[in-house]
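Internal tracking record. Fields below are filled automatically when a chain is submitted to the structure queue. Please do not edit lines marked as system-generated. If the sequence contains nonstandard residues, flag them in the REMARKS field before resubmitting.
Queue: standard
Priority: normal
Entity type: single polypeptide chain
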Amino acid sequence: MASGVTVNDEVIKVFNGMKVRKSSSSDEVKKRKKAVLFCLSEDKKQIIVEEDKQILVGDIGETVEDPYACFVKLLPLNDCRYGLYDATYETSESKKEDLVFIFWAPEGAPLKSKMIYASSKDAIKKKFTGIKHEWQVNGLDDIQDRTTLADKLGGNVVVSLEGKPV
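SYSTEM-GENERATED OUTPUT FOLLOWS
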């Protein structure tokens, strides 16, 4: 069921900026988003970039020690969100980076919020072309342990996520 919710152009701009890995200067790389959250606008008609809910590549090692743990802390415990997380992981053969689309719908979120986010998910997913990994998360227990994300990315072939063994 479609909700009639539209996707704000800024959301698409953020996605394209995270997806494209063109060779950039180190300053440009530092400004690239590692993770970002999207929410519904106050009138519930648009999916927008949530202000101040992002991690920049340049923050890692500066103000952010563990980008994955930091991303988990950005998620609200009592409302839904969509998220994009640029996962860096290693298999026994190679180092990889993949964008993961996350639909956060915690148990504590209001039913109305869960319904509108669930029915609007296709609108945002259609704009995010080329996403290989989608993950619906229903609580902190599902997301706090990085091995769950490692399983989504490649199961038991993933040996580390964000430089930490899994």
